[in-house]
Amino acid sequence: MRNRTKPKDLRAGMSTKRVVILGLPPVDALDVIGPAEVFAFANELQAGQPAPYDLQLVSAGADVFMDSESGIGLRGHRTLEQERRENKPIDTLMVATGFQPIEQLHPAAIAWISTRAATIRRVCSICVGAFALADAGLLDGRRATTHWAMAPRLAERYPLVQVDPAPIWVKDDNVYTSAGISSGIDLALALVGEDLGNSVALEIAKNLVLFLRRPGGQAQFSASLRSQHVADSKLAKLCLWISEHLDSDLTVEMLADQMATSVRTLIRTFERELRTTPAKYVEDVRLEAICRALELGERSMETLARRFGYRSVDVLRKAFVRRFEISPREYAERFLVVT
């Protein structure tokens, strides 16, 4: 049974916003259902008052029924042709598809997205839906993300797009792109947070049994996980050593000495195996360790700075905000402790 307790900062008097999820079949089912559940929960929390969202699933296919890549069929509310004819106002558009359709994107859908975008407050993509936004020209000159495995292809096919494969979602002006599969839920939570307040987004996350509402700057996968798959055994050992000495002054010279190599060779090895620099890798591992500590209840910034090698709390906070686009305190508030 869903919890309908109304959070304190649910904004009264908010006009109903029309949210359209456009599916280019065959879609990834979770790309559609995940965000839809977030908006549906927001409506349930407003029980007894006008719903904040009018959520509609629009199929780009010939009828309202959409195939999914998992074989589970989805039924939309209307077709793209009906949407085009009626031309109803749209507050937020979320474009979802699957991995197969990006090889031949739906031309009518691309044309419609390109035409309607100027009248829509927020235009979003879920996972490889970024290919549709890029094809419509909406990502030219913008920073964007997609599923990490598809990021190189997105960058190659659309060279004007500033593809960043790391974050789980990216906001560039009024255009939002999200990473693989479940990150569509994180993006939808962020949109609800913008509209209704952070406590509402947290309440929805709790109802969805998500232990953490992830910020957009969080990486799709960790630096530590990447290091486990490097081919160079010396580098693998060095990465393990780094994780065990995060409180030390991990200069590039110290790392080179630890690996018994030159600074130039060390830098080349990091770029070849991990596609990053030694300094960036160290910072990534430190920040991921700080995130874990915050999630486990640590709140002393002085302790965290000392434990993870930052010379001051201010330096730690600036590095954290630069990476995650929120402060350590704000990150900690997104961690849900259910008692």
CATH topology of the largest domain: Rossmann fold
Helix content: 40-55%
Quick one: CATH superfamily of the largest domain? Class I glutamine amidotransferase (GATase) domain
- Structural class estimated from helices and strands: alpha/beta
- Average predicted confidence as pLDDT: 87
Number of domains: 2
Strand order of the largest sheet: 5-2-1-6-7-11-10
Q: Please provide the count of β strands.
A: 11
CATH architecture of the largest domain: 3-Layer(aba) Sandwich
Could you name the ranges where pLDDT drops below 50 across 5 or more consecutive residues? none
How do the SSEs run, as a string of H and E?
EHEEEEHEHEHEHEEEHHHHHHHHHH
Number of helices: 15
Question: How large is the radius of gyration?
Answer: 22 Å
CATH domain class name of the largest domain: Alpha Beta
What is the approximate shape?
Answer: globular
Sheet-strand content, in percent, reads: 5-15%
Distance between the termini: 18 Å
What does the model show?
The protein contains 15 helices and 11 strands. The protein has helices at 29-45, 80-86, 107-116, 130-135, 151-157, 183-196, 198-207, 223-227, 233-244, 252-259, 263-274, 278-295, 301-307, 313-324, 328-333; strands at 17-23, 53-59, 65-66, 74-75, 78-79, 92-96, 122-125, 143-144, 162-163, 169-172, 175-178. The longest helix is centred in the last third of the chain and has 18 residues, at 278-295. The protein is globular and about 65 Å long. The model has no long low-confidence stretch (mean pLDDT 87).
